[in-house]
Design a protein that fits this description.
3 domains; disordered N terminus; Butyryl-Coa Dehydrogenase, subunit A, domain 1; globular; 4-stranded mixed beta sheet; Butyryl-CoA Dehydrogenase, subunit A, domain 3
Length: 387
């Protein structure tokens, strides 16, 4: 159920929902249980269908469509199969969009076509063992070496698609300037000498989306792989707003899926001789679910249409992400309560939705950090959390 007043991407959404339900929903539970991502063949199928290039320029094989259309597709897939939705998320709202918006033309031509077809994937590597929310505390360094390029040393943690992705957009210190002033971004290939990966994480949710440390030991990276030089950290995080939009949409999809399951269940399930929907206490819980899902949807839609040059307004993004992240956790919890014992089983899929809801609330900036960003944007000032 999607209650948006005007769905400008109704046909695209309908196609995405059909493919997701027929092809990827049947494999979702197995991917979760076995903790494995979708296969290369399935990823390339998504590319063949055009889902991996929706929000990328036509000259690289994309559709040149607005971000909102990509978000509609992500939502439909994420309702039934997050591992498949993640591939669409990564290509349309992830680090490939940093290449699209901030990279050189040569980098776009070299990297984007293979991402759009599904032949290659790119992950973003920001967090470190001692630098999560405090991204400017990053210690990974990329030191210039003559005219050859940079030598990269350090380690990144909680990297979604870590070990699976072919390319990594690595936030690193490209100069000795303190704080954010020294941080830029450089593309590192999985096959480069000195790149290795930690043991795959066993997460509460996000199963079917690999996560592992990425380790760099004297990795020689050519200078043409620098996407953003030191001193332009604000540009990097401006582009990261697109990824946060994808994140908010994943949470929206989880909440909507839980609501859809609940609306069907309360009209079918009987207790004390009548359907659950007849009980006022159930009506109150379901009404709260609808209110929260629709509030999140409106904020996500507003944020998707904000900003210039395809970069959403950071305040609108933080409002949308914070609301959607917390909504998904609350709504999936209410759905489990309404379903009673059935909600606590794996059979109904609600516990999987609930587990995944917590993962998306952590990824890309927690609700607590989004609240800080909201106040910062509203007041037009920055707050130093170290003092």
């Amino acid at each position: 159920m999607t209650v948006s007043v005007v769905d400008e991407h109704a046909e695209t959404r309908k196609l995405a929902a059909q493919v997701a339900e027929e092809v990827y929903a049947p494999m979702a539970e197995e991917l979760d249980v076995t903790r494995t991502p979708i296969s290369l063949a399935e990823r390339k199928r998504l590319g063949d269908l055009g889902f991996l290039g929706i929000a990328h320029p036509e000259r690289f094989g994309g559709a040149g469509a607005p971000l909102s259309q990509a978000l509609a597709v992500i939502e439909e897939f994420a309702k039934v199969c997050r591992p498949a939705a993640f591939q669409i998320f990564e290509s349309n709202t992830g680090p490939a969009q940093v290449i699209n918006h901030l990279g050189t033309e040569e980098q776009r031509e070299r990297l984007l076509p293979n991402i759009i077809t599904g032949d290659k994937t790119m992950a973003v590597a920001i967090s470190e063992p001692d630098a999560g929310s405090a991204a400017t505390d990053a210690r990974t360094t990329a030191r210039p070496v003559g005219d050859d390029g940079y030598v990269l040393n350090g380690a990144k943690r909680w990297i979604s698609n870590g070990g699976e992705a072919d390319h990594y957009l690595v936030y690193a210190r490209l100069s000795d300037a303190p704080g954010a002033k020294g941080i830029g971004a450089i593309v590192v290939d999985k096959t480069m000498s000195g790149v290795s990966f930690g043991v795959p994480e066993r997460l509460m949710g996000f199963r079917g989306i690999p996560s592992a440390d990425v380790i760099f030991d004297d990795v020689l990276v050519p200078k043409e792989n620098v996407v953003v030089p030191a001193g332009k950290f604000s540009s990097l995080f401006g582009a990261f707003s697109i990824e946060r939009m994808g994140n908010a949409t994943m949470s929206l999809a989880i909440g909507q899926a839980a609501l859809d399951k609940t609306l069907a269940y309360i009209q079918e399930r009987e207790q004390f001789g009548k359907h659950l929907v007849e009980f006022q206490s159930i009506q109150m819980m379901v009404a709260d679910m609808v209110l929260q899902v629709e509030a999140a949807r409106l904020l996500v839609e507003r944020a998707a249409h904000s900003g210039e040059n395809g970069i959403p307004d950071p305040l609108q993004v933080s409002l949308a992400k914070c609301t959607a992240n917390e909504m998904a956790k609350k709504v999936t919890d209410l759905a489990i309560q309404v379903h009673g014992g059935n909600g606590y089983t794996e059979e109904y899929g609600l516990e999987r939705l609930h587990r995944d809801s917590h993962g998306w609330a952590i990824a890309g900036g927690t609700p607590s950090m989004q609240r800080i960003r909201i106040v910062s944007e509203v007041l037009g000032r920055r707050f130093d959390q170290r003092r």
